[in-house]
Structures are given as structure tokens and as C-alpha cells.
């Protein structure tokens, strides 16, 4: 017999932790009680809370909160991988961001996490031919968060957008699993090609602030792109590139650059 949503929520460690943190937050700061109850404690599970939060953020006079909530609910009911990826993203933010001290913080406050989850819904719409709705969500994310992600961009799980400001990810860009990207990064094209024209970011990559990665090039897994670099050529796996134009300056420094978040060139992290 299939489990009900309430039964599933009881064995969801991410949701259990979020509820516990929410209850503690209300005890510590009663003035947040209304928001925390509305966003978390009134819901049966993680998917419900996430759909509600996205609807709150993305609603506008052009599209009501209720309609966006229905779209998100439909997406999560149809594709379990969306919420599974959101859980991985939540854990990634908590693990990699020293400013994040609880799982409820990204869900309630961090625009990078919220923008990625909104994009996942817009990508779901895009794949089903509902492109005008997908463009609407892209527009709202860009207006609200200063993050412009084309609905067709493919994004893996365990994604951390640090500070998450002035980001542009193009239509045919692909971002692998467990990638960390800082602010002011562009994954863009060159020229006016209309086909496959954007970068392919491998798993475990760290992209520093202000980096521009341009063209249909492969960025190898577990590599590092230094802050301010302009990357025009493919990057080998497990290396560090820096400069304008970017060149290989050494090894990546550790096995998981996106997890260690170490951006100092010439240093080696103790992370495995």
C-alpha cells in the first residue's frame, strides 16, 4: 500500500529537522511565530512547505500566490527528483556556508536556494511544453533575486549559490552535481549561435566570484575557477584556472573544491 504524505514526512530526516528548528525559532523569537507557522509548521511535509514558500516569493499582481502554489504542487507530485534535489541543495548550503546555522535559514531567507528551487519548477514546465509559464517564473526570479537562469538550463543537485547576486546561466548551460558558484558569475555564450552554445560544468566544481565562462566548453569535474577569471577554453578535471583569459595554474588543491570552498591559489585543503 502506498504511503500517505503524512507517513512519508515522519521518516524524512530533513523535514523532521526543519520542524524542530522552526519550533525552536518560535520559542527564541515569538515575533517570527506567524511567519514560521505559515511557512513551515502548518504544513505536512517538505514539499508542501517549499511550494508555499515559492508561491509567496514569486506571486505578483500578474500571477496569484494560489496559482503558483498549484503549479509547484503539481510539479512536486509529478517528479520526486525535484524535492530530492532541493533536500540535497539544502544540505549543501548548510555544509558549505559558514553563515548558515540551521536548515530553516535557506528555506526562509536565502535567495540562492529559493532561486534554484524556482528554476527547478520552471525547468519542469519547460520540459512539458509549458514554456510561457516557465518564462514567467524565470522573469520573477530575475526581478526578485537578480538571478537570470533560462528555464532550459540543466542543474544538478547539491547546488550552492553563495551570496547569489548577478548570476546569469544560459539556455544550453549544464551544471553538474555538488557545484558551488559565487556571486556575479556568467555561464554565457559567444556570438549569435542558436544551438548548443553554453558551458557544461562538471561535478564538484567551484566557480569564484566574478568569473565568466563563455561558450560551449567543458569544465572538468572537481576543478576550480578563480575569482574574476574569463574562461574561454576547456578546463581539465581537478585543476585550477585563473586569469584573463584563464589558464591552468595548478592542481585543484583538494578532491572536492566545491565542498572545501578554498579559493586561495597555491594552497592545499585538508578536506578529502
TrEMBL record:
- At the top level, the lineage of the source is Bacteria
Gene3D superfamilies noted in UniProt: Hexapeptide repeat proteins, serine acetyltransferase, domain 1
Q: Which UniProt keywords apply?
A: Acyltransferase, Amino-acid biosynthesis, Repeat, Transferase
For this protein, the Enzyme Commission number is: 2.3.1.30
Supply the SMART domains for this chain: SATase_N (SM00971)
Write down the CDD domains for this protein, in alphabetical order: LbH_SAT
Q: Which top EC class applies here? A: transferase
GO BP term, example: cysteine biosynthetic process from serine
Query: Which GO MF terms are attached to this record?
Result: serine O-acetyltransferase activity
> InterPro entries attached here?
Hexapep (IPR001451), Hexapep_transf_CS (IPR018357), LbH_SAT (IPR045304), Ser_AcTrfase_N (IPR010493), Ser_AcTrfase_N_sf (IPR042122), Ser_O-AcTrfase (IPR005881), Serine_acetyltransferase (IPR053376), Trimer_LpxA-like_sf (IPR011004)
According to UniProt, the reaction catalysed is:
L-serine + acetyl-CoA = O-acetyl-L-serine + CoA
Is the keyword Coiled coil assigned to this protein? no
Spell out the GO cellular component terms annotated for this protein, sorted alphabetically and separated by semicolons: cytoplasm
Classification via Pfam families: Hexapep (PF00132), SATase_N (PF06426)
Q: In which pathway does it act?
A: Amino-acid biosynthesis; L-cysteine biosynthesis; L-cysteine from L-serine: step 1/2
Identify its protein family: Belongs to the transferase hexapeptide repeat family.
Q: Entry's PANTHER family?
A: SERINE ACETYLTRANSFERASE
NCBIfam families, per the entry: cysE, EPS_EpsC
Q: What is this protein called?
A: Serine acetyltransferase
Natural source organism: Celeribacter marinus
Q: What lineage is this protein's organism placed in?
A: Bacteria, Pseudomonadati, Pseudomonadota, Alphaproteobacteria, Rhodobacterales
Amino acid at each position: 500500500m502506498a504511503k500517505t504524505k503524512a507517513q512519508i514526512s515522519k521518516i524524512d530526516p530533513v523535514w523532521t529537522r526543519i520542524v524542530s528548528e522552526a519550533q525552536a525559532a518560535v520559542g527564541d523569537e515569538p515575533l517570527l511565530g506567524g511567519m514560521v507557522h505559515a511557512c513551515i509548521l502548518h504544513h505536512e511535509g517538505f514539499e508542501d512547505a517549499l511550494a508555499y514558500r515559492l508561491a509567496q516569493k514569486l506571486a505578483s499582481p500578474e500571477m496569484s500566490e494560489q496559482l503558483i502554489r498549484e503549479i509547484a504542487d503539481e510539479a512536486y507530485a509529478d517528479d520526486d527528483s525535484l524535492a530530492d534535489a532541493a533536500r540535497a541543495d539544502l544540505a549543501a548550503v548548510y555544509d558549505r556556508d559558514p553563515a548558515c546555522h540551521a536548515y530553516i535559514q535557506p528555506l526562509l531567507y536565502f535567495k540562492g536556494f529559493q532561486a534554484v528551487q524556482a528554476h527547478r519548477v520552471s525547468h519542469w514546465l519547460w520540459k512539458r511544453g509549458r514554456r510561457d509559464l516557465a518564462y514567467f517564473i524565470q522573469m520573477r526570479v530575475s526581478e526578485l533575486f537578480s538571478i537570470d537562469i533560462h528555464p532550459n538550463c540543466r542543474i544538478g543537485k547539491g547546488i550552492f549559490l553563495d551570496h547569489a547576486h548577478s548570476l546569469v546561466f544560459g539556455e544550453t548551460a549544464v551544471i553538474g552535481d555538488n557545484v558551488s558558484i559565487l556571486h556575479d558569475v556568467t555561464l554565457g555564450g559567444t556570438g549569435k549561435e542558436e544551438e548548443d552554445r553554453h558551458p557544461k560544468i562538471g561535478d564538484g566544481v567551484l566557480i569564484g566570484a566574478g568569473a565568466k565562462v563563455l561558450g560551449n566548453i567543458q569544465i572538468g569535474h572537481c576543478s576550480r575557477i578563480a575569482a574574476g577569471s574569463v574562461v574561454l577554453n576547456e578546463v581539465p578535471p581537478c585543476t585550477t584556472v585563473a586569469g584573463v583569459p584563464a589558464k591552468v595554474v595548478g592542481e585543484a588543491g583538494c578532491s572536492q573544491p566545491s565542498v572545501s570552498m578554498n579559493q586561495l591559489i597555491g594552497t592545499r585543503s585538508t578536506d578529502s
